[in-house]
Amino acid sequence: MKPLRPSVLDPLFAPATALSGVGPKLAKALDRLLGDETHAARVTDLLFHLPTGAIDRRPSESIAEAPIGEVATFSAQVTEHRPAPPTKAKAPYRVIVEDETGDVTLVFFHADVRHLLQTLPIGAYRIISGKLELWDGMRQMVHPDRILDPKLAATLPSVEPVYGLTEGIGGRVMARIAAGAAERCPELPEWQDPAFLTRHDFVPFRDAIHALHHPVDLKAATGETVARRRIAFDELLASQIALALVRRQQKKAAGRATAGDGALRHAIETALPFTLTDGQRKAIADIHDDMEKPERMLRLLQGDVGSGKTVVALMAMAAAAEARRQSVLMAPTEILARQHAERLAPLADKAGLKLALLTGREKGAGRRQVLEGLANGEIDIVVGTHALFQEGVAFHDLALAVVDEQHRFGVHQRLLLGAKGEAVDILVMTATPIPRTLALTWFGDMDVSILSEKPAGRKPITTRAISLERYDEVVGAVGRALDAGAQVYWVCPLVQESDTLDVAAAQERFEALQAIFGDKVGLLHGQMPGRDKDAAMAAFSRGQTRVLVSTTVIEVGVDVPNASVMVIEHAERFGLAQLHQLRGRIGRGSAASTCLLLYKGPLGQVAEARLTIMRESEDGFRIAEEDLRLRGEGEVLGTRQSGSPDWRIARPEIDGDLLAAARDDARLLIERDPQLETPRGQAIRTLLYLFERDVAIRLLRAG
């Protein structure tokens, strides 16, 4: 067995409580912010929790020169305290500070007067920092961020990093513990090629991390700097090495040709209520060509919502059945798996194919019957969830594994599923359009087929952004849509009302709409028992309920053609890709469809840009490009390549040359040093552990 994680990394994989000042209460908040279901927050999570911005606290020469409307820092003398009048209990406490060029009123609500008298004694000089504003023509600063004795001036950073926070963690606390994490970063063996480092002016990893957590100017915290590019390239390289090792693993096992006569595919196409698009025909041909070759297929089928990927997958599975072999279609949720099974079953039946469903909920005799059918070859196609990974699931002769919504799984799970048979071909589907550069990063080990068209008859969706202040008008519009025979999705961000977020809760909204529309309203969310979710979805599909209040559990794959209205509440809190996926649940029937994006103002710049692009376009590929431009760090590749879709450092804006360099370097490295045993190879092992590329680590340890 190969060695475990290099001991040099132990300080970084220690729990966050190893950092000075992180006690149990703060650790719980960090767990919410940075941990996941596999571990509590660690030092490394803080190391890669980079600033999202910075505050310029460089001092102005005088009060007169301090910028209005921005964070200002200046030195001034305390000249007066103005307590609130006794008759106005809610009035603020004011302190006047001045220099030879002017004065500023410091405003404090609910003031601790004793503390202010100690902190700001009359006659003392203080360094003041905070947002400076004009009120009735006078300069004022409400609750200054910093009030310092001039002797402590050195403790005030000129540029203060700003981090993503959660309840229970203040900005100064986060900056302190993130800096502490950076200090714990040891000198690591260099995994980059020396010539490459010189060419790009890259500093050592430890120095780059330190620079990112101690920005010298605003650009250093938010822009593309040498330090950020260094760490981003490290992450790109780790990912590309992982993909190169997966490619090598795929090539180790010989492929197996799967050739059919086309009879079952012809029967399915004849039974379709629509004509295949040119893109679907091209994708089917590419997949069939791959399956007929003696090499293993590893292909990505990428298409926008509603482009017809599932039919292409069914044709591929029919090709396997023509060769008397089996196929599996794995979906990320039980709802989607059941819906796939329901949609595919009639078409499979027309072609004489036996299709079964297998999820974690199937128990007893029904489950045993499915397992026996898979083992003896009676079942041609099985649709399911993660339950398909289980050891007790055995196939008679598995030829093809179709993985729907790849980003919900990962490379490791893909390999597990592929190991269920001899030389299993893999077809991965995603409804999240990915720009070409990103596709190279995420799916660098795959061939790609793209469905750019939508089936004939799809009507455009009218999208509008409406303030939540007009909620009553929206409810009225929903009522008119119901009177006209339509069905409505109403999506909320949370299941229950939150004390910390002022957002709609699905349960609360369900009760409010039920009070208006009665039993026409149904509820669906991820915390419901499986059978209740099925019942809610079935009632909506049948038209028994006409309004479905839901969380984002309906984001992927749910298909109710009569649903033509989508209301997304607090749309400003959703990402572009998620908004696009949700909107894709409507526009599937013959009726004109409308998507209403309810937002709570005022909108930030990014949120406003998201809603604008949603109003302007239904093109998923354009939306994906805009999404990457807007969100900076994005969800691209699992940090462990086993289901956690979260880039830590590498931003989508990283140019193609840097990505290409990482791919080329990874390929050459694996060719020259297959087991990473050279000095540089050993350093690369450290890199893989650092960025938690678990698939690569498992493959290396397995030899």
Topology:
Layout: H1 24-34, H2 43-47, E1 53-56, E2 71-82, E3 93-99, E4 102-108, H3 113-119, E5 125-131, E6 133-135, E7 138-142, E8 146-148, E9 159-162, H4 171-183, H5 194-200, H6 205-213, H7 218-222, H8 226-252, H9 263-271, H10 278-292, E10 298-303, H11 309-322, E11 326-330, H12 334-350, E12 355-358, H13 364-376, E13 381-384, E14 398-404, H14 411-418, E15 425-430, H15 436-442, E16 447-451, E17 461-467, H16 471-483, E18 487-491, H17 506-517, E19 521-524, H18 530-542, E20 547-550, E21 563-568, H19 576-583, E22 593-599, H20 605-616, H21 620-631, H22 656-672, H23 679-690, H24 694-702
Parallel strand pairs: 4-7, 10-15, 10-16, 11-13, 11-14, 12-13, 14-15, 17-22, 18-20, 18-21, 19-20, 21-22
Antiparallel strand pairs: 1-9, 2-3, 2-5, 3-4, 5-8, 6-7
Helix pairs in contact: 4-6, 6-8, 8-22, 8-24, 9-11, 10-11, 20-21
Q: Can you summarize this structure?
A:
By secondary structure, the chain is of the alpha/beta class. The protein folds into four domains: 1-57 and 160-181, no CATH class; 58-156, OB fold (Dihydrolipoamide Acetyltransferase, E2P), CATH 2.40.50; 290-451, Rossmann fold; 461-617, P-loop containing nucleotide triphosphate hydrolases (Rossmann fold), CATH 3.40.50.300. The chain contains 24 helices and 22 strands.
